[in-house]
Amino acid sequence: MTAFARTDTSVLGRWWWTVDRWALAAVIILAAIGAVMTLAASPPVAIRIGLEPFHFVRRQLVFLPLAVAVATMVSLLGPKGIRRLALIGFVAALVATAAVPVLGTEVKGAVRWIQLGAFSVQPSEFLKPTFIVVAAWMFAERRLDDRFPGNLIATLLFLLVCGLLLLQPDVGMTVVVAIVWGVQFFLAGLPLVLVGLIAVVFVGGAVGAYMSFAHVQYRVDRFLDPEAKEGYQVEKALQAFQNGGLFGRGPGEGQVKSQLPDAHADFIFAVAGEEFGLLICVVIVALFAFIVLRGFARVYQESDLFVMLAASGLLVMFGLQALINMASTVHLMPPKGMTLPFISYGGSSTLALALGIGMVLALTRGRPGQRSWPQ
Amino acid sequence: MTLERRNNPFDSDMARRVRLDGIRKAALDTGRNRLLVTGVMFVLAFAVISGRLIDITILEQGSEPRVAQSEGVTGSTAARADIVDRNGMVLATSLPTASLYADPFDVLDAAEAAAKLNRLFPELAPEGLVERLTSKSHFVWIKRNLTPDQQYEVNRLGIPGLYFQRGERRTYPHGRLAAHVLGLTDVDGRGIAGVEKSMDRVLRAGEAVRLSIDLRVQSLFEEELAKGIRDFSAIGGAGVIMDVRSGELVAMVSLPDFDPNHPATMVADTGFNRTTKGVYEMGSTFKLFTAAMALDSGKVGLEGGYDATHPIQVSRFTITDYHGKRRWLSVREILVYSSNIGAAKMALDVGTERQKDYLKRLGLLEAAAVEVPEIASPLVPAQWREINTMTVAFGHGIAVSPIQMTAGVAALVNGGFRFEPTVLMHEPSLMPAGTRVLSEKTSQRMRALMRLVVVAGTGKNADVPGYLVGGKTGTAEKQVNGRYQGNKLFSSFVGAFPIDAPRYVILAALDEPKPNAQSMGYATGGWVAAPVVSRVVARMAPLVGIEPVTEQREREAMAPVQAVYRVEGARAAR
Lengths: 375, 574
Fold this sequence. Notes:
The structure holds two protein chains of two kinds. By secondary structure, chain A is mostly helical. Chain A has one domain (11-363). Helices cover 69% and strands 3% of the residues of chain A. Chain A is built from 13 helices and three strands, in the order ααααβββααααααααα. A three-stranded antiparallel β-sheet of chain A has the order 1-2-3, covered by helices on one side. Chain A is globular and about 60 Å long. The model of chain A has no long low-confidence stretch (mean pLDDT 81). Chain B has a domain at 218-573: DD-peptidase/beta-lactamase superfamily (Beta-lactamase, 3-Layer(aba) Sandwich). In chain B, strands 1, 2, 3, 4 and 7 form a five-stranded mixed β-sheet that branches. A five-stranded antiparallel β-sheet of chain B has the order 9-8-20-19-18, sandwiched between helices. In chain B, a hairpin with a 2-residue loop joins β18 (470-480) and β19 (483-497). Chain A binds chain B through residues 80, 141, 143-145, 148, 183, 186-189, 229, 235, 238-239, 241-246, 273, 277-278, 281-282, 285-286, 288-289, 292-293, 296, 299-300, 302-303, 305, 308-309, 312, 316, 319, 323, 326-327, 330-332, 372, 374, and chain B through 2-4, 6, 20, 23-24, 27-32, 34-36, 38-39, 42-43, 45-46, 48-50, 52-54, 56-58, 60-61, 65-67, 70.
């Protein structure tokens, strides 16, 4: 660990000694596991939809190093740089997301993608992390100067983002963004009465989604009805875990990947369980928990409110996305159509997550005067 | 650029900085506390996920694998239920097995895989295997129902693309025993013969079927019938034992038989159920029905009789007696000496219509309603003329199945009630009532007559000391292409025991027995079938709890019969 001397004051030198190297290592390990999992899970899916077997592998093996590079580069920025990057990115993503219904292509019943040459980009993925940072900024300003209408701005932006996500429609992502926004508001000192009120509104929103989106209603009904057989994918996923046992069937020995349409994306956790066993699954859970909780621990010592709100918001989003994906794979909640960060196949989502993690790493870097322990 | 740098004209710079510090400190404190709450919730959530993972991976290991619930080939998930005998012995059961299939897309080297598999399963030709392993499909059967040993060996070959499908295999632990009653299932577990077919829906629903068959009796009957077939070089045989008080069939034997564990052993002849699917001219055993209807209708009494001095000539037919006495014969003598002439005259006395009516009520004109699918309808005269009435009287010109015959005789001896024959055990509380077809008195007289045949007539070989067997022999020439063949006989004995209070009717028949020295050159029912009945009764009586009577008691029971017989013998001598 002596790549850089302590006295090295170049950008990289300072970065090396201030960045959370443990978290970065965890992210790289996750990406490495993700590469192996894509290798295991995606060929049968590719064959089934008529692509050459390593189509997804090839692409993901481009995306993952790119993601690590993006995260690293973003983490070179300081808090102010992050704020600017987020603001610009947010405006761009907002415009692009709004344009998707007009310019986008439809995939699996949802219009989320814009074709950009050989790649299709899902702008809403980039909307989330940038929105979180912008919202954190607004909350922080309002907290420090109550004449500034930060809460109002954050809330209006939140409603705008929700509206755009629901247009696609992407109910799962809307839920994630709503929870992150709620947590940030909560951390920013929202009176507890209002916390309760927002919780009520969320429950109302969930009921509303159930009432107005047929596919949401179907998934929830299937989940709640104990008589109904679990959905085909969930049933297969549970079989996979049981089949895998403690140590798994061994690489390539899994069956579930040839039976699940989404084996490489939403249900990749099940492939991991079948081929590599319970132990690797627990390792994956532990890595996610490590990244989130270690981030929290660093944020806890933070003296800048904006940094605290932004970093915790990004960590909550990251952790929540992992939790929701894993929870629906192990049938603790209705399937949500959410990727497992860095493990699932997906270009936009991987890069957007890399952007988010890069911003967390940047915000949690050691800075002079950063620490302010509560007295 | 940032907002905190805006100047507030009402605050002095210093005061503002102090206030801001205070606010920031308060805000950070609140944020930290609430961050702790959020962190704890994340810890809980990650812990729940881990717990659930352990739950579904490890803790469900012991339970039935999920695969079996969703991937049944036949669609039914419940195992096919057992078939048991009346004492609960398992006759048919389903065992879980593994069947080998391949996904040709996963097979790397079909030729090598075929060669390896052929070494393990020599019956699978390598050419056929290669063809299957290279087909454009994701599923081809290689071999069904592997033993655990074979499954292990296949796994040891390490051929990619081979998989096992969990299934079940129908197994008959007693092999050939009661094969015709049980029938069998096809490879997909559907019943295709016997009770497996007739009760298919019940068995599929997972409900065990309890047969009326007593495995022990079935087994010993099969042994004794097989011995009879061997002794007289017969081509086959049939045996039925029926509980006279319920119609339950305690044994139903048809030889040659097959092994339902090996469906290939079921070919035309072995698969043929002689007791239900075969209809035969029964010959003299039919005289029992003739005597019963004559006595029951009051046309003649036990003391009455008919002149059997001369053969009867009807158009181109001549009815003669086999053991001709050429004199007047009483009803008793007609049965004891098995006189065709006497029986024909008796039937004429009863009349054609009444004869048909009695036979119909005894179940001899319609197919038996027993619960196996292999059932034949009897062959009865298309036009029932006087000549038919006479030939039917001694069991010619009418062909019935052994099952019909047995059920008919049961009605003669059990007090006059006809029960539908069944292979299913009745609930003790749901015993059928039966339909009266004869009077109690007629039944009593028939029992005495049947005992007399065994004591003094053609059925002597059926006697078992202590067990009071009564019955009647029958020997009929088989028709081939409409002509009677003198050397092809269907020889039978049908009886009941103990005849003073009958429990069981028993029928044994040999198909085309050949005479030998042991039978004094005869191949008649009395010489070839009666000994089978004698041996079966001697062996089964202790099993079903019938105690032998002492010689003293036996003499007492038969004293009236013998006395009458002596009187008639004296009268005949006069």
